[in-house]
Amino acid sequence: MLSSLLGYGLFGLDFDLSWLHVTAVIGAALATQLVCSRLWKLPRFDPLSALISGIGLCTLLRTNGIAPAVFAASLAIASKFVLRIRGKHVYNPTNLALILMLVAGAGWISPGQYGHFAFAALAMVCMGLTVVTRAARTDVTLSFLISYAAILFTRSLWLGEPLSIPIHRLQSGLLLQFAFNMISDPKTTPDSRAGRVLFGSLVAFGAGLVQFVLFRTNGPVWSLAAVTLLVPLIDRWLPGPRYEWTPTTARTGGSKPAGNLATAGTHPHAGAAAPAPAIP
Amino acid sequence: MKRPLLTLLLLATWPVASHAFCGFYVASGDAKLFNKASQVALVRDGDRTVLTMANDFSGEPKEFAIVVPVPTVLEKSQIHIADKALIDHLDAFSAPRLVEYWDPDPCMVAKEERFMLQNAAPAAKMSADLAGIRGHSLGVTIEARYTVGEYDILILSAKQSGGLEQWLTENGYRIPTGASRVLGGYIKQGMKFFVAKVNLKEQRKLGFTYLRPIQVAFESPKFVLPIRLGMVNADGAQELFVYALTRKGRVETVNYRTVKLPSDQDVPEFVKDEFADFYRSLFGNQVRQQGMEVVFTEYAWDMGWCDPCASDPLSASELRGLGCFWLSDDVSRGGGQTPFITRLHVRYDAAHFPEDLVFQETSDRTNFQGRYVIRHEWKGEGDCPGAREYRASLAERRAREARNLAELTGWRLERIRNKMAVTADWSRPEDRQRWWERIWKN
After folding, report:
1. Which of A13, A62, A162 sits opposite B354 (nearest CB)?
2. Distance from CA of B111 to the nearest CA of A (A)
3. What domain count does chain B have?
4. Are the Cβ atoms of B255 and A62 closer than 8 angstroms?
5. Do B325 and B390 share a domain, yes or no?
6. A259-260/A244-245 β-pairing
7. What pTM, to 2 d.p., does this model score?
8. Most buried residue, B148, B169, B322, B336, by most Cβ within 10 Å?
9. Which of B373, B396, B418 is the last residue of a domain?
10. Minimal CA separation from B291 to chain A, in Å
11. Which domain holds residue B252?
């Protein structure tokens, strides 16, 4: 889905992205994954997650020149290996790189870049793909979207605005990319379903706060960065089975999707004692 | 007599003038270019905003009134009346431009190029006694009342839209049906209302025959241009030009897609004579192609220079006049970071633009300009192999230029071909003249 978004952006919407830019960013993500896999002595090099982060950054992060984007891609992947709590990486790598680049003023996100889709059509495609590829984390996406929609509609109803306003805000292509490809990252969301639903709602609440109280842009991205810090607390409060990224299982198991819910740590507090999950 | 309520986006007609510059005069046209257009200069740095609103209201000054939602109560010193020439200059500097080149003599080794510019700028021709006690009973508070230049200005706050609507009606403002609902949304967000009308006595004293742009300076995290009020009574689509001046880089809308106007294309020579028409058709066609859902970037450039220049860059004092507070008039003391200008152009209506425009400043300093090129054919009599090759290539070039033009403007290819005075295969009789026919032209 990310690849099709990138393709749509490049060919359909004429993003200011060169092939060199795309290749360099994805290449940097893969190279960092390779180097870190060696340094951390992982049994195998798994390119999938790095590829997802690389494409995600290509579609979201805009920079002056290629160098800052390459730096961001390396930063994103390296963060997975460095920033870990109880064997679980803390930040969604794309989200962290975006935040650091925004704070440093080295890049920007164009929230309006996809324009506004026929919401229902796109949502169905997203849902379909999500069900196929990442059934385990649909709950966090739905929780976020429903909460965010509730905030938008409630605010507009209170202000007496026509409903075309919240609908227009929901039809943002970037919002959907965030909901289906960033917040749903199985490695950085809480372990239990209840925890994930809470997490999705908190991110939506934070996004509303950034947009309507602080009047800043990219609310969901900032909110996710802040709420991610609460994940260890949510996991402690609402424990659940740990997610493990098991491409080997997917390949050998045939019918299982690439990302599935495994029970690597049968007890949520047994993170250190349980076999270390593979780093995506 | 009631004043028609004009909101931030004033209904106006906009005469076009093609400007001559760089020493070459190009024919001007006085056709109307864009109707119902308004121009806004938006200086923004951090949370500081200076808004300059220009209009070319052409009716009786006593009928003029403007209501703009603003985030804070403004003091008198936060309001200023600007010189209209500032907006005109910004417009001329950032307008799409036509560049002319003359093909060199293919028989000559040394090539000489000249170019001339034509500016299709819609040259910015965009130009109380109030009952406080009554206001109180309607929940309307007159927060402040000033006379600045030729304008009487009120800053109002209100508790509910019905009261504000009634107060405005009772005080001679003609409120369009449906405004109340929009006003209500702004009231609940804690916005105040900047209301201005012309003080005829002051205007006579000052001697201005036109209405000068109003400027307001305020600090607020909101980087928004309220367009909803202006659409309440709009009859059809409206046109808005925003000249954003920032320190870091390009400005774009975050709740609508911002796209660059197609640029750097070769078009047939006759476009020179109808550049205003070309620009209007080009813009209209692009709006149609994008389903009227996007905001167009027509210019994005560091104000320290230009290439080619459609007009001289604005001086430091002009930029300060527009609100670039970080600039010093004294260049010898460093002057300060030259602003980056972004010219945004949007045609909008309520169906396609339900929300106010929300902006963000990016760190993008990539230069962009709406630039169109005409190449004058070489009409020499030389008959060297280079000349023969050149003449043989002209038909294909004309076809390409015509296709570019058709794609940009939506004009029919047949019409373009007629205007270019070429045959069906894009050639002209003189392309095939033999050498002796070139000697004795009669």
Report:
1. A162
2. 34
3. 2
4. no
5. no
6. antiparallel
7. 0.83
8. B322
9. B373
10. 11
11. 3-373
